[in-house]
Amino acid sequence: MLGLKKYSDKDLVQLKIAFDSIFDKTEQPYFEEFVDSGFSYIATNRLGEVGAFILVSETEEAICKHEINFLGVLPRYRRKGYAKALLDKVKSVSSEGLWLNVLESNMEACKLYETNGFSIARRFTGDSGDFGIKYIYGLACYPPQIFQIKQPCSPF
Questions:
Q1: Helices 107-115 and 82-93 meet at what angle, rounded to 10?
Q2: Which domains, and CATH codes, for the chain?
Q3: Best CA proximity match to 144, nearest among 64, 39, 89, 60
Q4: Considering all CA atoms of the chain, what is the largest pairwise distance in Å, rounded to the nearest integer?
């Protein structure tokens, strides 16, 4: 069982261990550049090891004020509600809206965000040619209709 708490710099070593276990090395530079907005949370076991986390930064992008940069859950803690609990916590403290990017091929993530109140703002093609989706949440975000949304996640 994991306990949820606000992220602080003293958790960085354990966070990095979890991050490296979940994300590909290509994400490492983004992790190193991450600046916490004060809305990031981690879920730890009784030994203080991070089993799940959500990292949120402030953004200058003209969609919503806060970006979910990373949401990760170690495999042994998946399908136990930790991702939803982390999302719920961030949604409850961020009154100025949230946004995030996710690869369209990551169907589990797409389903998670869509079933937790996020709307598709737009689809895009990333620098590597992968298809992505920008999700938004909250009243402080631009309305989805300005992005000409046509459909929810699809496998292709």
A1: 50
A2: 3-147 (3.40.630.30)
A3: 64
A4: 47
Q: Are 133 and 101 in contact (CB under 8 A)?
A: yes
Which stretches of 42-106 are DSSP H helices?
82-93
What is the residue-level pLDDT of the chain in tens, covering all 156 positions? 999 999 999 999 999 999 999 999 999 999 999 999 999 999 999 999 999 999 999 987 667 889 999 999 999 999 999 999 999 999 998 878 899 999 999 999 999 999 999 999 889 998 888 899 999 998 665 555 545 444 444 443
Query: Cβ contacts of residue 87 below 8 Å, gap of 6+?
Result: 54, 71, 112, 113, 116
Q: Say if strands 131-137 and 119-125 run parallel, antiparallel, or are unpaired.
A: antiparallel
pTM score of the predicted model: 0.87
